[in-house]
Fold this protein.
Amino acid sequence: MSRTRRKARHLGCSVRKRASGKLGFRFSLALPDGTTKQFSEGTDLLDTPDNLELMGKRAAVIGAEIHAGTFVYERWFPDAAM
């Protein structure tokens, strides 16, 4: 009999093209109660190669902060309602 292992949720950040044609961030955060929640924040940047590169760099920093436990939602997205 084999045991199934539960896959750990990925904590990090990625860039997604939204239905509007603009780019947005998608990321998972571990909450204080131990659960993980998915978040999505849009931007006004259109899906162009230059904007994808810029957003990719920002997503890498956000992901690193999430892994380090130093991510502050309000600092990156001050106008968002969490």
